[in-house]
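Note to self: keep these together.
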Amino acid sequence: MIKARWIERTLNPRFELGTSKGTITARTVWYLLAWNEDQPGVKGIGEAALFPGHSKEYPADVKLKLTGLCERTDNWAHRTLTDLVDVPSVRFAVEQCLRDLEAGGTKNLFPSEFTLGRQAIPINGLVWMGDKAAMKQRLREQIESGYTTVKMKIGAIGLEDELDLLKAVRKEFGSEHITLRVDANGAFSAQQAPDMLKRLSELQVHSIEQPVAAGLYEVMVELCADSPIPIALDEDLIGLNTRDAKEDLLDHVKPQYIVIKPSLVGGWTATQEWIELATARGIGWWITSALESSIGLNAIAQHTATLNVKIAQGLGTGKVYVNNIPSPLLADKGYLRYRPEEAWDLAMLDA
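Structure:
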């Protein structure tokens, strides 16, 4: 018989993580641990990492579902198709936990050339918001670290300052050398967006994520049809947990890209569905972490490695926390690598 428990942990960033929706100074995640009674030393672990301000779930939802899962463990697989669909982070935690248990608690969830250390996943560098000087320094650091795709958060310090930062990069590096992405997190109004998109296009920006707030579908329809640069939907995907709802969004808005955060859309099953629907419509996609700890990031990365991705993914967040779980993952020179010779250190989960 399977036994289970859950624990809550707070992750502390190395610096304040600025976004247009506010600054992140701490992050709470929940871990689901399961084991067979006859092998208590072999534990499967999954991470539930809802994202305040983005997720449609609340901490109380997560804790209630986790408690119920620990009280009854014989129906987990079924529940991922029923009531857990509407609690995406918990659904993903269950997927991870069951797969890790099957893998003997090794965290080797999708064996591949990636987990053997022979292949790496291309990733973008990420520039968090701060004052102009701090963002300029972070841009420089990302490029000097070997990233050829850099994503910058915009929408908080003022568009003119943000454009100045992007112009400085373009003055030194052409689009054939550095790919620039921006992420607005819905910061701009319907009135501001068209001019902002035009000015970004002049800097040969690859794409912009979520220029206006989620749910402004009619505005987004017009922007996607007329924008001089590709638009990627991000927050608009969150909360659409049925196939019909996903199809309606893609068919109506017709974005050029979608950004898939497995922790926020419902794990591997939901990720595969989004990819299938987008690909059938000629819509591009990439996968992004949502500031999970190493447990969740590993689960996302190993699955992503099986998808034969060519463009940069958003999986370079492992160094964000001072108290992250030590793992074989390493973001290095524009790639995420898995070092099988490095051991997991799960002491943080035993405390």
